[in-house]
Amino acid sequence: DIFLHSENGLLAFGPPPAKGEEDPELINAGKEYVTMLTGGSFFHHGDSFAMMRGGHLDIAVLGAFQVAANGDLANWHTGAPDAIPAVGGAMDLAVGAKKVFITTDHVTKQGEPKIVEELSYPVTGKHCVDRIYTDLCVIDVTTDGLKVLEKVAGLSFEELQALTGAQLIDATQQN
Q1: Quick one: what percent of the chain has pLDDT higher than 70?
Q2: Per-residue CA distances from 45 to 7, 33, 75, 148 (Å)
Q3: What is the full DSSP assignment across 76-111?
Q4: Looking at the annotation, which residues are catalytic?
Q5: Nearest partner of 143 among 166, 127, 122, judged by Cα
Q6: Could you tell me the pLDDT band of residue 174, with boundaries at 50, 70 and 90?
Q7: pTM exceeds 0.85
């Protein structure tokens, strides 16, 4: 079974409600309406962070501005002077979850790589990322390097490498 946790104090919440059945008191940390599953619970924000920091979450799924080849994560601020930082629970999740999965576009809107050799944005967590899911591929962060497990059909490994700011290892032939 999978139980979803939200940093604002929900455990075992379910899918969005049907249109017209939204409850403004049932929202996740992304301000999206949710439902509660049987046995689900509500708790204090502080208890939620204790769960995150205490290693009680198996997997955290986070977005990213950048991921470095060594698994460093930047997802709260670009460092731009006019950018509004989005400080939240990501730092706690990055160091508290047993595994950290990233979901992101492979490149920025300007075409710059999000997967880089070293971060140029402020760090959220060091050596914390285990897997990266982009719109182009799935990558495992390993001690040997960034191993591409899957890529979209029709995209060559060379094309993928050209869109990436760090060296990749083609592990698609081993699957």
Answers
A1: 98
A2: 7, 18, 21, 37
A3: S----TTPPP--SSHHHHHHHSSEEEEEE-SB-TTS
A4: 7
A5: 127
A6: low
A7: yes
